[in-house]
From TrEMBL:
Annotated region described as Disordered, given as residue ranges: 207-243
Gene3D superfamilies per the UniProt record, alphabetical: P-loop containing nucleotide triphosphate hydrolases (3.40.50.300)
Biased composition (Low complexity): 207-226
Coiled-coil zones: none
Name under which the protein is recorded: ABC-type multidrug transport system, ATPase component
Superkingdom assignment: Bacteria
Length: 243
């Protein structure tokens, strides 16, 4: 599913709400048969976020390998049921290392990120990655938890037309593997590679008619709804961080 619309139209808020990271104030929704209002925590366990600014930002100074190892450790500690965590803790160090290797190898393959093609392999710093490579790493990190729903924000941000095609091919491949993909984008393609079904939901709203409150004040200052929108965005990110 693609959530389209201009920046500031509520795309990210809708994405966070549908993954159980933001409380609903109105309406009803079900994700995987779970009611969001009553089962938000259960939805969070089945949904993973990728490429959401202010929520799961990559650390530029860390390497690709360090990000992968960190996510595997977090998944082992917080992302599985207590009984499964106990069983994992009883495994030998060699078995745990093999499990970790298998987890991130599967995630890298699904995200199409080839470590051998990077300048320094797994020791490549995030700041040295191209934009699409960063997106692939974000997707790989999210897939380590083996989610049923993958939510990707700003999927096509600052990507050229050829790179957008690669990005949609990546998400179509993930969807073909059985994971439902929810992608926020500026514009959705007419169809996805491989005949993968695509539903498009627009979050746009009319902006042509501007009120006096929206009109920039002298000196570049703005009043009214601009400040309210910025406050709503900040509140949403803070609530997501707490979740």
């Amino acid at each position: 599913m693609a959530l389209t619309g201009a920046s500031g139209t509520g795309r990210t808020c809708l994405l966070l709400a549908l993954t159980g990271r933001m409380r609903l104030t109105e309406g009803e929704a079900r994700v995987g048969g779970l009611r969001l209002r009553k089962k938000a925590s259960a939805v969070r366990r089945t949904a993973a976020l990728a490429h959401v600014p202010g929520v799961d930002d990559l650390e530029p100074s860390l390497t690709v390998g360090e990000h992968l190892r960190e996510r595997v450790l977090l998944q082992r500690r917080y992302g599985i049921a207590p009984l499964a965590a106990l069983k994992a803790a009883l495994r030998s160090p060699r078995q745990r290392r093999a499990d970790a290797r298998r987890l991130h190898d599967e995630a890298l393959a699904a995200a199409g990120l080839d470590l051998a093609a990077l300048p320094k392999g797994s020791r490549t710093a995030v700041r040295d990655l191209e934009r699409l490579e960063r997106l692939r790493l974000c997707v790989a990190l999210a897939l380590i938890g083996r989610p049923r729903l993958l939510a990707v924000d700003d999927a096509d941000l600052k990507l050229s037309a050829p790179l957008r095609e690669e990005m949609w091919a990546l998400l179509a491949s993930v969807a073909a593997g059985g994971v439902t993909v929810l992608a926020v984008c500026g514009e959705a393609p007419g169809e996805l590679p491989g005949g993968v079904p695509l539903a498009v939901v627009g979050t746009g709203r009319a902006t042509a008619a501007r009120t006096a409150e929206d009109t920039p004040a002298p000196g570049g200052a703005t009043t009214g709804t601009t400040d309210e929108n910025e406050k709503e965005t900040a509140d949403a990110l803070a609530e997501t961080g707490r979740a």
